[in-house]
Amino acid sequence: MTEDSSETKEYTLEADSELRFEIEHKDAKVLVSLVSGFAELFGTELVKKKKYQFCMGAKVAIFTYHGCVLQVIGKMDVCYVSKETPMIQYVNCHAALEQFRVEAEEQDKRGPVALVVGPLDVGKSTLCRILLNYAVRAGRRPLYADIDVGQGAIAIPGNVGTILIERPASVEDGFPKTAPLVYHVGHKSPSGNSVLYNSVVSKMAEVTLKSLDANKRTKSSGIIVNTCGWVKGSGYAHLLHAARAYGACAIFVLDQERLYNELLRDVPENVQVVLLPKSGGVVERSKEVRHEARDQRIKEYFYGNVRAPFYPFSFEVKFADLRLYKIGAPPLPDSCMPIGMKAEDNQKKVVAVTPSQALLHHILALSFAESIDDDVIGTNVAGFCCVTEVDMERQAVMLLSPQPRPLPPNALLLWSEMQFMDNHA
Ligand SMILES: Nc1ncnc2c1ncn2[C@@H]1O[C@H](COP(=O)(O)OP(=O)(O)OP(=O)(O)O)[C@@H](O)[C@H]1O
Question: Exposed, middle or buried by CB within 10 Å (0-12, 13-18, 19+), for 155?
Answer without folding.
Answer: buried
